[in-house]
Amino acid sequence: METLEFIIYPDGRVQEKVTGIIGTSCEEVTAAIEAQLGRVIAQERTSEYFAQTVQQSETVKTQATYSDW
Question: At the top level of its lineage, which domain of life is listed (predicted)?
């Protein structure tokens, strides 16, 4: 499940935490929000950022043979 969490501090700082988004696409999701909030002071990338999605495919060939028995 994709989640964006925001903590707004009394001094106006906003902490944003993104979970459930694998890879760099989290930057695309948060870009518009960050542009509206103002200057980004720091970013800390999680293990999800560096993870890669795994696509697995397998082709199975079957051959039916009939004997004269």
Answer: Bacteria
For residue 68, how far is the Cα from the chain centroid? 57
**Interval 39-58: pLDDT, tens:** 898 988 888 888 876 777 77
Is 14 in a helix, a strand, or coil?
strand
d(CA 37, CA 35): 6
SS3 state at 37: helix
Query: How do the domains of the chain map onto residue ranges?
Result: 3-44
- Cβ 23 vs Cβ 51: under 8 Å: yes
By C-alpha distance, which of 2, 6, 10, 15 is closest to 43?
15
